[in-house]
Amino acid sequence: MAKHPDVAVVGGGIIGLTCAYFLAREGLRVEVFDRSDLGREASWAGAGILPPGNPAGAATPIDKLRAIGSVRFPDFSAELRELTGIGNGYLRCGGVEFLEPAEAREVTDLWRAEGIAFERVPDAQLPEYWHELGVAVRLPDCAQVRNPRHLRALVAACERAGVRLRAGADVSGWVATAGGRRAEAVELSAQERVHAGRFLIAAGAWSGGVFDALTRPAEYTPLVHPVRGQIVLLNTGIPEGGPVLMWGKRYIVPRADGRVLVGSTEEPEAGFEKANTAEAVAGLIAFATRLNPDLASAEVEKCWSGLRPATPDGLPFIGPVPGWENVFVATGHFRAGVQLSVGTAQAVAELLAGRPTCVPLEAFALDRKPHAGGTAAFRS
Fold first, then answer.
1. So where are the chain's domains?
2. Contact, 230 vs 361, CB < 8 A?
3. What is the residue-wise DSSP string for 307-340?
4. Does domain 95-142+225-308 have CATH number 3.90.1150.10?
5. Confidence class for position 18, pLDDT limits 50, 70, 90
6. How far apart are CA 161 and CA 83, in angstroms?
7. Which of 71, 196, 260, 311 has fewest C-beta within 10 Å?
8. pLDDT in tens, 22-39
9. Matching fold, domains 7-86+148-224+312-364 and 95-142+225-308
């Protein structure tokens, strides 16, 4: 690789790594910097749920971003496996979402308009312990991926594509031109400067600190803050899998090897502290056994937590940084990093290549006015 990369990516989670890979496929020299180990923060901790989608029928930019990931993930997974030999566990397992009766029609109308396949599960087919959970809707095209395997495949794919990966490289400052509208380099904590043609901030929950280090004339600092999510992994010892179960903001993801992932809490008050609490773990286990009483006898294999990057209106920030000619951003994907990663990377690669983007980026602009938005098509 040349001494100076064409693009320096600050952040080595699923968004930064996927963007780096897509940019390298465009023929650009790319270098990735991460403050810790690559892909070991929120990306590693997530459940890997991939809701269904249809880009042609998506009503909003965020729906289209999700739908792009839905339709492209099978081929992208195959591409990563062919390139690296690492399978990411992609599986079209189907799903069941439980909806509040008051919202069921609005949500299913969204799915119908987008062209998403679904069917209401008749009450007669529901287990007795599901009757009080709301309206059960089956989603045959819901899929899942194993996050740690996918991250390992992404790291290996980036290496094979010529991306230089720098773990433990914390960006502590920036060097700008005298006029202050163009970044020249990032400063690492080890008093090292790395020059690049363009810069992409994809540091997840830590993006705010990276922006704070930018010298003026930054016209907007995104309000990205961490929201802790705790997860419990159960092991039934019975390799049978099954559909993803989604109820509100919580879910059960059965793996084909008999493990069952149960999540997740939302704890904005935790700040940057990653920990598991007895109350949260007990609540998740109670939730799991309510949806599937057979899980009461499963082994609790491990628990962990991750820090999701949240924004005021729940939408990510994607696009140019106002006031800078060569600094861009892709962060704030909150609970949906995996499902939005492919669409985000496609949009970033198109933007930096000077082509029309797959989604209009105005909806994800840094200087947009946060809005409450409407009913979300999917929440997990």
1. 7-86+148-224+312-364, 95-142+225-308
2. no
3. EEEE-TTSPPEEEEPTT-SSEEEEE--GGGHHHH
4. no
5. very high
6. 9
7. 71
8. 999 999 999 999 999 999
9. no
How far apart are the C-alpha atoms of 293 and 242, rounded to whole Å?
15
Q: How many CB atoms are located within 10 Å of the residue 252 CB?
A: 23
Any residues with CB less than 8 A from the CB of 11 and at least 6 apart, and which? 32, 33, 34, 201, 202, 203, 204, 206, 207, 210, 331
Looking at per-residue pLDDT, the higher value among 379 and 97 belongs to 97
Output the pTM of the full model: 0.95
H-helix or E-strand spanning residue 7:
strand 7-10
What does the alpha-carbon distance between residue 207 and residue 225 come to, in Å, rounded to a whole number?
8
206-226 confidence digits (pLDDT tens)? 998 898 887 554 555 668 999
CATH class of 7-86+148-224+312-364: alpha beta
How far is the C-alpha of 264 from the C-alpha of 270, rounded, in Å?
Answer: 14
Closest CA relative to residue 34, chosen from 14, 60, 6: 14
φ/ψ of residue 135, rounded to 5 = -85, 120
